[in-house]
Amino acid sequence: MEMITVPAGPVRLTDRRTQRSWTVDVASFLLAPVPVTQEETGTLPLVDVSWQDALRFCNTLSAREGLTPVYELESSTWDRSANGYRLPTEAEWEHACRAGTTGPRYGPLDEIAWYRENSAESRHDVGGKTPNTWGLHDMLGNVWEWCWDVYDAEVYGEYRVLKGGGWFDEHWSCRASVRRRSHPTFRVDDVGFRLARSL
């Protein structure tokens, strides 16, 4: 799969629960234009995949393509010098989703996302909606996407960040800034992931 080069830039993250906001300077990186898909269909997003499953997938694909695997699976650590596939950080994901826009979404929701009101309560083939200006499809809606980051270690321990909203969510969950959390072993039918690589 050809990946898209996301330009460097700052992104402001917010957490409605804690009323916190913070700015992160994101370096340029590579991101897949669509979420990872199921092998048997090639077009439906892969779901029922945990954060830990996603890390294993990234390492396996990296090794298969002759790249250096990024993750130490036993300790859940990231070798930032490795050139293999990985999950985006939360800041990378939101910066890529926004694609230079400042509103809650990068376009009219029905044109860019599958969500509860238009999905017939099921996932859809990736790439069927209008991409953002950087060429990234399904950043909002269809499936939630795992990010690398711990959500809030003091309160939720090792829970990880999910971004983007899914096919079963109301419109207010399909916004660039929305954060959800789940345990790294959690699997459900509206959570998938997207591949990233460092430059």
UniProtKB/TrEMBL annotation:
Domain Sulfatase-modifying factor enzyme-like: 41-197
GO terms for MF: formylglycine-generating oxidase activity
PANTHER family linked to this entry: FORMYLGLYCINE-GENERATING ENZYME, SULFATASE MODIFYING FACTOR 1, 2
Entries under Pfam families matching the protein: FGE-sulfatase
SUPFAM superfamilies: C-type lectin-like
Name of the protein in question: Sulfatase-modifying factor protein
Transmembrane segments: none
Gene3D superfamilies per record: paralog of FGE (formylglycine-generating enzyme)
